[in-house]
Amino acid sequence: MRTIKTLLATGLAGALLLGAQAARAADPVTIRIAWTVPVFNWPSILLEKQDLARHLGKTYKLEPTRFAGTPQMITAMATGELEIGNLAYSSFALAIQNAGMSDLRVIADEFQDGVDGYYSDEFMVRADSPIKTVEDLKGKVIVTNASGSAIDIAMRAMLRKHKIDDNKDVTFVEAPFPTMKAMLLDKKIDLLPGVLPFSVDPELRKSSRDLFLQKEAVGTTQMIIWAVRGEFLQKHRAAMLDFLEDALRIVHFYVDPTNQAAVAEIAGRVAKQPAERFAGWLFTHKDYYRDHNLVPNLDALQANMDLQRQLGFLNDKIEVAKYADLSLVKEAAQRLK
Fold it and tell me: Has this prediction a pTM greater than 0.90?
């Protein structure tokens, strides 16, 4: 009898253990995804259309988290506090080379600059400025958001194309994007990078003019990508696939021209600005190019990496193909067909 009771007890304990493990396995996977600029980074508005996220709360939980910049994202990914980084191509390269994150993988596109027919960042001077050519920038003051950023690299590349030493012939100062307009109009700087949404500011457009575009400096730029650590990707592939399927469904809503009024309303609410400020251009050809299936341009990304090295921001060549896994986003797109 003791043997039977022991077996029954053991069996019951085993069943309970298996049940607990199954329950844990069924718990939704938490996916923390970074963003910096409201509306212009997809993660900031994904949950605004969570009614389209069929797997949300079932196989995964989504926690969009705002960061001041990509350096903080790299730190959070290194310490396991962030699953998906919303990284500029420049910070992605530094995460691999400087932070030693060799298992980092590009999984999706955020947006690209310089694609024909779409917006390209404008580098602007005051409307009454005597600066007419890039050569006229010699001896002038240029503002950048951060040394080595994607925008910063484009400016330095343009200067070197025109035989201007970006370390000696001009002065660079750093400032947040929202403060740059006042610095230009107060004549504290001579050139600023006009990036969306700041470049559509009516006062800035009235008081400034373009000197050059980013695509004229560096061609197509894979500006922002989604990146994940390899271990997390392998361990939670099914949940990540479900998330990307939902993300694609939501992205398709935002880029559908018939939803423009609803999109402007959402953008205004999230950015705490009038909805009309986004009407007629957000997620259209007047905006940056955003692949509707979230597929990044790896050729452009490789060219961007190579340029970083040429400008001295990277020590070694990075082979982009080794750090990309587009299988999930492509499979997710197939699910929607």
Answer: no
